[in-house]
Design brief:
The protein has 2 domains: 109 residues, Nucleotidyltransferase, domain 5 (2-Layer Sandwich), CATH 3.30.420.40; 75 residues, ATPase, nucleotide binding domain (Nucleotidyltransferase, domain 5). Helices cover 30% and strands 29% of the residues. The protein has 6 helices and 10 strands.
Length: 230
């Protein structure tokens, strides 16, 4: 038996899930900016007590490790590391874009054709997104990058492939990319701790863990502080 606590804070979605042997037992989520620090520990306590287990019953803590919001990632990873230290449990890191791809394949109700490509997008700033390309088996075929989107983005892939774009970054790029008939947009997709389940379960079975002391989120870009507007 495996019991994994899963944490997702990379975007405006803050969610926590508890999975047993790759199946979700409990889940809590809120979609709101700048609320992650205030609710994350309450969510964790809530789902632990809701299924009548103890913290020591956990086999591992899994966290969505980025790319994404600098502050959100810091909150999620520091919470996961704190639990790992306190409970002496292993830490599992799941790249956020990979979790999003698995979310579309398994949990979103959308059934992609086997030849489609999946393009999760996380809003960065202006017309920039964090993105990667996956096939419908969840395999990454174009590595994670920070990309500025224009009408020529993905043009070579879109010649021969239908690409499903989703995530908060895809919403702002729809007007530019939707001119191509092979571009498909999946509205309303929300990052979720549930989406970590398959990757986290596989990593637990393979003992694929992070060094809790030295692990850092996958920021992809340097943090740039915005100027406060009065």
């Amino acid at each position: 038996m495996s019991l994994i606590l899963q944490i997702e804070t990379a975007t405006t979605s803050c969610s926590v899930a508890l999975a047993k042997d790759g199946n979700i037992l409990a889940f809590k989520q809120v979609i709101e900016r700048n609320i992650h620090a205030a609710v994350i520990t309450r969510f964790i306590e809530g789902i632990i007590t809701s299924v009548n287990v103890q913290y020591q019953d956990l086999d591992a803590i899994a966290v969505s490790c980025g790319p994404g919001s600098y502050t959100g990632l810091r909150i999620g990873v520091s919470t996961a590391k704190g639990l790992c230290f306190a409970l002496d449990k292993p830490l599992i890191a799941v790249e956020t874009l990979a979790a999003m791809a698995f979310g579309v394949i398994n949990y979103n109700g959308f059934v992609p054709d086997k030849d489609m490509l999946l393009c999760p997008m996380i809003d960065a700033r202006r017309m920039e997104v964090f993105t990667a390309i996956f096939n419908t088996q969840g395999e990454c075929i174009q590595a994670t990058s920070a990309a500025i989107i224009d009408e020529n983005s993905f043009s070579e892939l879109l010649v021969d492939n239908k690409i499903v774009f989703f995530g908060d970054g895809a919403e702002k790029c729809a007007d530019v990319l939707s001119k191509n008939a092979n571009a498909i947009f999946l509205p309303g997709f929300v990052n979720s701790a549930v989406h970590l389940t398959q990757k986290a379960f596989k990593k637990l079975k393979n003992n694929d863990f992070e060094d809790v002391a030295y692990f850092e989120p996958f920021y992809l870009k340097e943090f740039i502080a915005g100027k406060k507007i009065n």
